[in-house]
Specification:
Helix 2 crosses helix 3. The chain is globular and about 45 Å long. Strands 1, 2, 3, 4, 5, 6, 7, 8 and 9 form a nine-stranded antiparallel beta sheet that branches. The two termini are 28 Å apart. It has three helices and nine strands. It has 198 residues and is mainly beta.
Length: 198
């Protein structure tokens, strides 16, 4: 695949309702350009967070903090945060003042695989490089400082990818203390893809 032909999607792509966006992102290319080179992967797993009514969302109850501020703006921007020392990357969704987001949980390596190994360690199996939200950010070189960037401009962007034949939906992962929100089927993944997180 020629990465030079990969262009960011239009800002309007992110204006879809959050659950539809989370599904539409499957198969798209997540690209990060750095001084060390370009790394990219096809998105194979996402999770939607629909605050303020979603107990699992950082914006539950319209909670507005310096960390969540970006979620109150327009869709299509980068929301990064650190959890257990790992940087996680989300796409702001929903209309302004409706703070919603889509977490990118896993990608299938596509471009810059050697660079991913340099960042993650050469002792890893290929499918372990990016099969989790903290793994993929490290592999692609996505950092907390990417917070607030537009996903429709370089150097961190979403590009057209490949068609997904079959997608599945089910409960989100790692949100055990969120009451009934634990059961919402707001995680989406490419069926049968080996890079989907465990």
């Amino acid at each position: 695949m020629n990465v030079l032909s990969s262009r960011p999607v239009a800002a309007a792509f992110f204006e879809q309702p959050t659950l539809i966006l989370a599904r539409s992102l499957l198969g798209k290319l997540l690209v990060k350009e750095t001084e060390l080179g370009i790394a990219a992967g096809w998105i194979v797993e996402t999770e939607a967070y629909i605050g303020p009514g979603d107990r699992a969302a950082h914006s539950f109850g319209n909670r507005r903090t310096p960390r969540t501020e970006i979620m109150f703006g327009p869709p299509g921007y980068v929301y990064t945060y650190v959890m257990h020392t790992h940087c996680l990357v989300n796409i702001v969704s929903g209309k302004p003042d409706h703070p919603e987001a889509v977490l990118i949980r896993a990608v299938e390596p596509c471009i810059g695989i050697e660079l991913m190994y340099d960042r993650r360690g050469h002792d890893k199996k290929l499918k372990e490089l990016t099969n989790g939200p903290g793994k993929l950010t490290k592999a692609l070189g996505i950092v907390k400082e990417d917070y607030g960037r537009p996903f429709f401009e370089r150097p961190l962007y979403i590009a057209e990818g490949k068609t997904v034949e079959s997608a599945a939906a089910g409960p989100r992962i790692g949100i055990d203390n969120s009451g009934e929100a634990r059961e919402y089927p707001w995680r989406f993944w490419v069926e049968g893809n080996p890079f989907v997180s465990k």
